[in-house]
Design a protein that fits this description.
Helix content: 10-25%
Shape: globular
Strand content: 25-35%
Distance between the termini: 95 Å
Largest sheet: 5 strands, antiparallel
Number of helices: 5
Low-confidence stretches: 38-48, 438-442, 444-452
């Protein structure tokens, strides 16, 4: 009897446990939340070890499309000549190059050597990169550190001098992008995990990665922090979240990826917005939104024909320009840069490459309008910077010269936010130390009076 009773007892206990577990999962009663959180944590640990075994397996590296390296196109007289700043995913550094691709200055500051936040453990160095950088005229630089395989993946901002010495540090879950105002204030995106249920929006289920806009003083001190999701839901545009996001990945329901401070001239040409508000790109709901930081409310928002877009900029003429990563389907898929009138939603300009000039990046990427009207475009997946005129002609092209992986077939991505500077816009002290020569081969004088 014992040989029959004990196996039956074990089967009965197992069956009742299964039934109880199914009931908890279906009804989500106690202790469902604890089991769910444990399962999510286990999944995160598994994917971190399986999907991030090597930096080459992450989206920091892509298959190289060409063996060409450095500057491959340069049309003097057609370009807005100057020095170009960019960050590459292969190292925690930023580089400043001349029009011929020569490195004239670089900043390098590994996070591990300056990290003093006891609450977080860093990823290995090969998984850490500078996702966005900004250079001041005196050579000071702000770098945003992120770690592939972490959630949240942002580590913070560090301001350093021209010699890569730390000026200040701001540790938070910063990600994607920041903007610097004329008064030195910094507008940066951060996020954090929330476990609350939002009444009326239960489908935005926790654990949820919520985005914020944080305002920092020029000295890196936090002045204000505004929840983007709360600001959207309390506005008349909250209905955009009724159906949930079109591109949801692991409860990252908005995936805000750029913040652009609206200037007075731009606001004067687009009456729906005001100076000091910020334009946001909300990737996972294919939306452009304007956030009023004082009201903590979204005051304008629109969806369009773009998909998974990045780097929304409000131009001085009031138009909006963005990098449309997935919206160019006419030629079988691809990316494009779009400028549109936000009052009529009419597309006024676009660049999408052509059959001879492949143009595509599934993630990241962006553009910056130059003073002569040309666009400096970052095609991240291609590891490429290109300057394009309004006729759609490429007048300058730079391909990341770094290679890695088996047989050097992989190329590190370039992060959006590349900037072009006239040498004379830089302080004389910084010009004196950079290794830059003008068209005549002579080093630029610290007293050069060239206009910006």
């Amino acid at each position: 009897m014992d040989r029959i009773f004990y196996p039956l007892l074990v089967l009965c206990v197992a069956f009742l446990t299964f039934v109880a577990g199914a009931f908890v999962v279906l009804t989500k009663v106690f202790p469902y939340e604890h089991f769910h959180d444990a399962y999510e944590a286990m999944q995160a640990v598994y994917h971190q070890s399986a999907d991030y075994e090597s930096p080459y397996l992450t989206n920091l590296w892509r298959q190289a499309r060409t063996d060409e390296r450095g500057v491959t196109i340069y049309e003097p007289g057609e370009t807005f000549d100057g020095l170009t700043l960019y960050a590459s995913s292969h190292a925690q550094k930023a580089l400043l190059i001349s029009m011929d691709g020569k490195v004239v200055h670089e900043w390098a500051l590994p996070l591990r050597g300056i990290w003093d936040n006891p609450d977080r453990k860093l990823r290995p160095d090969g998984f850490i990169a500078w996702e966005h950088v900004y250079m001041y005229p005196n050579g000071d630089l702000i770098a945003m550190y992120v770690g592939m395989g972490d959630t949240p993946w942002g580590y913070g901002l560090v301001k350093m001098d021209k010699d890569s010495n730390v000026i200040w540090k701001y540790w938070d879950y910063t990600h994607h992008h920041f903007d610097v105002a004329d008064d030195g204030s910094i507008y940066v995106l951060t996020n954090e995990i929330h476990n609350n249920v939002i009444e009326g929006y239960e489908h935005l289920a926790p654990p949820r990665l919520d985005d914020y806009v944080v305002v920092l003083s020029p000295e890196g001190k936090q002045l204000k922090k505004v929840s983007i999701l709360d600001a959207l839901l309390r506005s008349r545009y909250g209905r955009m979240m009724r159906a949930g996001p079109a591109w949801n990945i692991k409860s990252d329901f908005l995936h805000t990826n750029s913040v652009d401070l609206i200037e007075a001239e731009a606001a004067s040409n687009f009456p729906a917005v005001s100076e000091g508000q910020v334009l946001l790109s909300l990737r996972d709901i294919d939306t452009m939104a304007v956030l009023d930081l004082e009201k903590e409310e979204v005051v304008w928002a629109v969806e369009g024909s773009w998909h998974r877009q990045h780097d929304a900029d409000m131009l001085l003429n009031g138009n909006i320009m963005l990098f449309d990563n997935w919206g160019h389907y006419k030629d079988g898929g691809g990316s494009r840069v779009v400028e549109f009138d936000p009052m009529t939603l009419e597309t006024v300009w676009t660049y999408a490459g052509d059959s001879k000039h492949f143009f595509e990046s599934g993630i990241r990427s962006g553009q910056r309008q130059l003073p002569n009207g040309n666009l400096l475009i970052t095609e991240s997946d291609g590891g490429r910077l290109l300057e394009v005129n309004r006729a759609g002609e490429t007048v300058w092209e730079f391909i990341n010269p770094v290679r890695g992986g088996k047989d050097d077939k992989l190329i590190p991505v370039l992060f959006f936010g590349a900037q072009r500077y006239k040498p004379a816009s830089l302080d004389a002290g910084f010009r004196a130390v950079i290794n830059f020569a003008g068209a005549d081969g002579k080093k630029i004088s610290p007293s050069a009076s060239e206009t910006k």
